[in-house]
Amino acid sequence: MGRVFMVDLEGDIYICKHCKTHLSKDQDIISKTFQCTHGRAYLFNNVVNISVGVKEDRMMITGMHTVVDIFCVGCGSNVGWKYEFAHDKSQKYKEGKSVLELFKISGPHDSNDLISDGDDA
C-alpha cells in the first residue's frame, strides 16, 4: 500500500478524537440535528482524511438509505457514515454528505450538543 497523504485544515476544525487527524471544518456543517446510536451527530458537506467501507442499505429514522461507514485514515477508527443514495425524494439532499458522530470527534461544538435530543438520521 502506498503512502497516505493527509489534508491539513485551518480555522475551526473537527478532528478524530483518537489520533487528532483533521476531518472537517466548522463552516462545512449542514445540520446539527442528526442522531446516532451513541448520541448526537453533525451532517457535513465535506470531510477529508477518511476511507470508506462497503455500501449497505440501512434503515434510519428518516427511511432507507444506502450508506458507507467512514474511517479516519490516521488510526482506522469509525467516525461516522456517508450517504451514497437516499431512497426517499425528500432525503436526496443527504447524498454525498457525511455524518460525523460527536462522541468520536473533537472540535468547536458546544458540549450541550453531546446530549442526545435530536430526531434526524
UniProtKB/TrEMBL annotation:
Domain spans labelled Yippee: 12-109
InterPro entries in UniProt: Yippee (IPR034751), Yippee/Mis18/Cereblon (IPR004910), Yippee_fam (IPR039058)
Swiss-Prot/TrEMBL keywords: Metal-binding, Zinc
GO MF term (any one): metal ion binding
Keyword Hydrolase recorded: no
Any coiled-coil regions, as ranges: none
Organism superkingdom: Eukaryota
PANTHER family documented for this protein: PROTEIN YIPPEE-LIKE CG15309-RELATED
Family: Belongs to the yippee family.
Protein name stated in the entry: Protein yippee-like
Protein source organism: Capsella rubella
